[in-house]
Amino acid sequence: MQNFVFHNPTKIIFGRGTIPSIGPETILWGKKCLLLYGCGSIKKNGVYGQVFSSLKEAGLEIVEHGGVQTNPLLSHVKEGINKVKAHKIDVVVAVGGGSVLDSGKAVCAGSVVNHDVWKFFTGKKSIKSTLPMTAVLTLAASGSEMNSGMVITHDATREKFGFGHKLLFPKVSILDPEATFTVPMDYTAYGAVDAIAHVLEYYMTTKDPATPVQDRFIEGLIINAMDSCDRCLVNPRDYNARADLMWAATLALNGMTGAGLGRVGFPMHMIEHSLSALYDVPHGAGLSVIIPGWLRWHSIVDARKIIQLGSRIFNFELRGIEPTSNATVKILENWFTRINSPIRLAEFDIPPEDIPLIAENALRLAKIWRLDQYSRETIEGILTLCR
Length: 387
Ligand code: NZQ
Ligand code: ZN
Description:
Blueprint: E1 11-14, H1 22-27, E2 32-37, H2 41-44, H3 47-57, E3 61-65, H4 74-87, E4 91-96, H5 98-110, H6 118-121, E5 133-137, E6 149-153, E7 160-164, E8 172-175, H7 185-205, H8 212-234, H9 239-252, H10 267-279, H11 283-301, H12 304-313, H13 316-319, H14 325-338, H15 355-368, H16 376-384
Parallel strand pairs: 1-8, 2-3, 2-4, 4-5, 5-8
Antiparallel strand pairs: 6-7
Helix pairs in contact: 4-5, 7-8, 7-9, 7-11, 8-9, 10-11, 10-15, 11-14, 11-16, 12-14, 15-16
C-alpha cells in the first residue's frame, strides 16, 4: 500500500427524481449561469425542461450554450468562455455526458484567465482559480461527474489531451438513472467499456505487487460494469441496471480505486485519445479496440495481473479453463463483441498504413503524461496488435 491523500469534494445526489435539486444546489454558487449541453438529447428526453424550470424557480438567470459534440472541441469551449465573460456568468451548469461535463470544466478554467485555455492542457499554465460548476449526468461512462479531469480536442492540431486539477471537481453532480434510459445501445456499451478501462489502467500499471484491497474493489467494479451493461442492453429502462452501471462508472474514476497504488499510467487512454482525435471514434469504442492489443503487449512483460484478473472474474477453475493471460483477453474480447463494441481498427475502416500517423499523434500525449516507456515503436507495436 503506497501513501496517499484521498479528497473528493464533489457532492453526489443520486436517484430517481433528483434533477429538480439542480436549481437550489446551483443558486448556492452563483446567480447567473451558463447552461451547457450537447446536441439535443436532453431536449428530447425531458431533462432540459426539468433543469431549466428548476434553475428558473431558484432565481437563476440563464444563458445557454448548447452544441457540445462528443469528443468535445476547443473552439466550442472558447465560445463558451466568451459568453461567460460577455454576460458576467458566475456559475456553469453542465447537463449531459462526459463531453459536456469536460467542456464545462474547461469553460470554468478558461473564464478566469486571459490566456488561451489550451495552455492548461499542454502544461504551459497551471490553474489558480476556476468558476464553480454544477452538473446533471445523463450518460454513465467517463466518471467526469465526480473527478477533476477534463479531455478536450484541439480542432487544428487534432490533439485530444486530458488535464486534471483539484479545482475542477464539480461542486455537486446529480445522477438520476432515469436520465440515462434514453442512452442508445451503442453508447450504453461504450460507457461500460470506458468504466472498465479506467479501472484496468490502475489495476495493470501500478508497480506495487501487493494491493489486495484495490484489486478486489476493481475486480468487483468490472464484474458489475459488465453485468449491469448486459442488463441495460436487455432492457434499457431497467432502473436498477441503469443505476448500477451509473454508480459503477462514477466509482471507477473518482480517485477511490487508485488510492494507495502509487504512480500509475493511462497508456490505453493515451493511445485511444488519438483514435478519437483523428477519426472521431467514440471514446469507449476506441478503448475496446486498444484494450485487447495493449493487454497482449503487456502480457509479454508481465502476465501476472492479467491471469489474476481472469481467474477471479471469469472463474477459470470452475469452468476448467487454463489460467492464461490469453484466455483473459479472449473472454474480454468476446464480451466486447457481444455488446457490439469493436475490437479491431479495421472495424473503423482505419487501414494499417495509418498506424505511424496514430502513433505520432499519441506520442505527444505520452510526453505530456510522462509515459516515457512508450516510444513511437512501442505504440506502433501495440497498434499492430489492434489491427
Ligand atoms: O450531444 P447529445 O445530444 O447529448 O448526445 C450525446 C452524444 O451523442 C448522447 N447522449 C448523452 N446522454 C444521453 C444521450 N443520448 C440519449 N440519452 C441520453 N441520456 O451520447 C453521445 C455521447 O455523449 P458523450 O458525452 O460524448 O459520451 P461520454 O459520456 O462517454 O463522454 C465521452 C467524453 O468523455 C471523455 C472522453 O474523452 C470523451 O471526450 N472522458 C472524460 C474523462 C474524465 N473527465 O475524467 C475520462 C474518460 O476517460 C474520458 O476520456
Ligand atoms: Zn475513458
